[in-house]
Design goal:
By secondary structure, the protein is of the alpha/beta class. The protein contains 8 helices and 11 strands. Helix content is 33%, strand content 21%. Bound molecules: adenosine-5'-diphosphate and magnesium ion.
């Protein structure tokens, strides 16, 4: 079997409090991300999502377990993996072009100024910021700043894009526009993405697979939901597809109820192979279509409802 782009094997994270008590935030997580896949992680606040993203990026270390990128163990941050943070994290004294050029020059130090600018311009155009090259972050709206963050991350052509609730600080209208742009850009560039979100509709719009985390402490991956909606989906036609409400109800039901009561000690739960579920098709449809077995963890598809 081909090596996935990201392979996470049994990672756990423990923090020691001031009084010496040890809290295990999440425990024994296993998942993989294939090249070109868009994977979302959903779970309640505090279950360790940001910590997982930091471990994947190499900015933090897990207490146990391993993360492999292209078969090699992660030992620290790398330009292989670009992070888009919740806040935009732009350098306020640099222009839009300057912020992106800074990252591009670090990635390709041998490039001359005009090559760097030409490369940056492609990504400025890609995120629809043409004409704003000379503006500084203080002159930009929240949505524009986040676009600069996206352009900067994509411009270094990372193997993996890691996003931590990138649209959560934006108003609903801007969020919708940016979600569609990310969908278009990822389709065009076949970018592999790992994204944390609180927003069920955002996950259904963007993700191929949605990892569901139980509440902490000792948070687990309860299951991985396969998005069976066609990749040609848009924000406007999403809700017209018959799979949409089934997937949405399944995710909401998880967040409202099952994330609290999920019991990992049931005999048929194996953390190394979290169940891969397809709530989208109705059961007869799923059988008739003979859905191919996803490559993620090798466990056969189960329809859970
Ligand atoms: N450096 C740290 N020291 C101690 N506890 C931490 C630290 N970083 C995160 N935590 C704790 O770990 C838990 C998970 O945090 P986080 O990954 O930010 O969760 P999420 O992103 O899912 O909201 C929280 O309870 C948080 O208080
Ligand atoms: Mg977080």
């Amino acid at each position: 079997m081909n090596e996935p782009l990201i392979r996470v094997e049994g990672i756990s994270k423990k923090f020691t409090g001031r009084d010496g008590t040890i809290t295990t935030v999440f425990d024994d997580l296993h998942f993989a991300i294939e090249p070109g896949e868009f994977v979302c992680l959903i779970g309640h606040s505090g279950c360790g999502k940001t910590t997982i993203l930091n471990v994947l990026s190499g900015l933090d270390q897990s207490s146990s377990g391993y993360v492999f990128v292209g078969g090699r163990e992660v030992s620290g941050p790398s330009l292989d993996r670009a992070v888009i943070f919740q806040g935009h994290a732009l350098m306020p004294w640099l222009t839009v072009m300057g912020n992106i050029a800074f990252a591009v020059s670090s990635r390709w130090p041998q490039w001359n100024k005009s090559k760097v600018r030409k490369h940056c311009q492609q990504y400025i155009d890609l995120v629809n910021l043409t004409g704003s090259e000379k503006k500084r972050p203080a002159e930009l709206s929240g949505g524009m700043k986040q676009r600069v963050g996206i352009a900067r991350a994509l411009a270094i052509q990372p193997k993996m894009l890691l996003m931590d609730e990138p649209f959560s600080a934006l108003d609903a209208l801007t969020r919708g526009v940016l979600q569609e742009e990310v969908l278009r850009i990822c389709a065009e560039t076949r970018q592999t993405v790992f994204m944390i979100t609180h927003d069920v509709d955002e996950a259904i719009l963007l993700a191929d697979k949605i990892i569901l985390m139980t509440n902490g402490p000792r948070a687990k991956i309860a299951e991985i939901v396969v998005n069976t909606m066609p990749r040609s989906r848009t924000r406007h036609n999403l809700h017209k597809h018959p799979h949409y409400y089934r997937i949405r109800n399944h995710l909401i039901d998880f967040l409202v109820d099952r994330s609290k009561v999920f019991a990992s000690d049931t005999p048929d739960y194996d953390p190394r192979h979290p169940p891969l579920v397809t709530p989208g098709p109705d059961p007869d449809e799923a059988v008739a279509a003979q859905m191919p077995k996803p490559a993620l963890t090798g466990k056969p598809l189960a329809v859970v409802r």
